[in-house]
Amino acid sequence: MFEDLSSKLSGALRKLTGKGVLSEDDVRTGLREIRRILLEADVSFDLTRQFLERVQEKAVGTELLKSVRPGQQLVKLVYDELVVMLGERQAPIAHASLPPTVILLVGLQGSGKTTTAAKLAHRLKLEQKAPFLIAADVYRPAAADQLATLADQVGVGIHREATTDVVALVRRGIAAAGHARARTAIVDTAGRLQIDDEMMAELRGLKEAVAPHEILLVADGMTGQDAVRTAQGFHEALGLTGVVLTKMDGDARGGAALSIYGVTRAPIKYVGVGERVEAIEPFHPERLAGRILQQGDILTLVEKAQATVDSEATEKLARKATTKRGLDLQDFLTAMRQMQKMGPLKSVLGMLPGVSPAMLKTANVDDKRLRHVEAIVLSMTPAERERPEILNGSRRSRIAKGSGRTVQEVNQLLSQFKQMQKLMKGGGKPGRKLPFRGGHGFPV
Fold first, then answer.
1. CB neighbours (10 Å) of residue 441?
2. Torsion of CA 426, 431, 434, 438, to 10 degrees
């Protein structure tokens, strides 16, 4: 997320933190570089100017702490102002005292509304908010079918009809949500290729008829200032209560996330970080600011682990790791699958403090390699997984053929696994790098 912006901004600040003393010229030059980086990231000109004015004002007026380098204090000021630019604090869904809470999803065609509706339903289901989906896109062919397929995947109820009366459809859908004892009703509305009067009139009529508790704009985070202009148009017509940014798992330039709140004052509530229904995260301004400045995001990583990792299986692995026998390849496979549940490995590692985009590129992190390792281990018999020392040349050849990998890859995996076993039994020296550093083995 924001790899290019993060790399450039951290690089500019690193030049300042490396100096023991900062002159006014140093600060001016550093802020000029930050200005260029933000504008290249498609942040609006006015917001960039206001951002730098606040940083410069605080940098000049702040009494320097003797225990902290001036450059580090400037980084703290930039971090604080990034948090302000992103919305200051998390803005959760405002749930109604009398359910169901009605959430209206609006946006342009292609922004990912239908998929976001399912992702949001999955998230709310985990939070025990009993979601229910309403297919109100009556214009796009197969839109209701797509939502029904996703609803089945998430395991939630859905209301759909063959009608063009959107208001009546949504009203009956909300009633159906009430009968199903749902606590939230998510309405997937129709989009257009661009904002037009007909679409806005329909949405305004829908808003007046059903009085939704939340009106969330689903905006494509890859479109930069186009997303900001779209947000402005919808906000002026409907009064948005929040925004969901999609496609944030790619290297979006960051302009949309850094500009939408400042322009509309509508908080970003969620971000989509992948294609799967689980790939949506609540938006925390302070955490994203930390990620952008490569300070990591341990809290989100912990929350992701708590939501996806089987704690009982993890405890079992931890207990077994301390035994004389230690972990075998079946345990290795279990641990690897637990990690895969947390999402793309690159995304998970990117939440660790100090891990820069450049480091991830040089580490050659590739989720396909995990699947290659999985194929190799699954091609072994239970006895071979338990006792890899019995794997002779003919067995290794059979495993390579069965997994579609090479004998060299099988040998490499077994060698790295053996190193890991030694390390876990105390054979490794403090500070020694772990094996499986993004090769064909288990990347750490």
1. 24
2. 180
pLDDT for 314: 64
Res 175: pLDDT: 95
Task: Name the nearest CA neighbour of 81 among 35, 41, 24, 26.
Answer: 35
Domains of the chain: 3-86 (1.20.120.140), 101-295 (3.40.50.300), 308-427 (1.10.260.30)
User: Among 197, 110, 252, which residue's Cα sits nearest to residue 260?
Assistant: 252
Q: Which of 332, 310, 312, 311 is nearest to 321 (CA)?
A: 332
Q: Ramachandran region of residue 340, left (φ > 0), alpha (ψ -120 to 50) or beta?
A: alpha
* pLDDT score recorded for residue 427: 44
φ/ψ (deg, to 5) at 103: -115, 115
pLDDT of residue 308: 58
How far is it, in rounded angstroms, from Cα 5 to Cα 40?
9
Res 435: pLDDT: 40
Q: How are strands ordered across the β-sheet holding 268-272?
A: 157-159, 131-136, 184-189, 101-106, 214-220, 242-246, 268-272, 280-282
Residues lower than pLDDT 70 in the chain: 1-2, 18-23, 60-71, 250-254, 295-318, 320-322, 324-325, 339-367, 423-444
Q: How far apart are alpha carbons 371 and 387 in whole angstroms?
A: 22
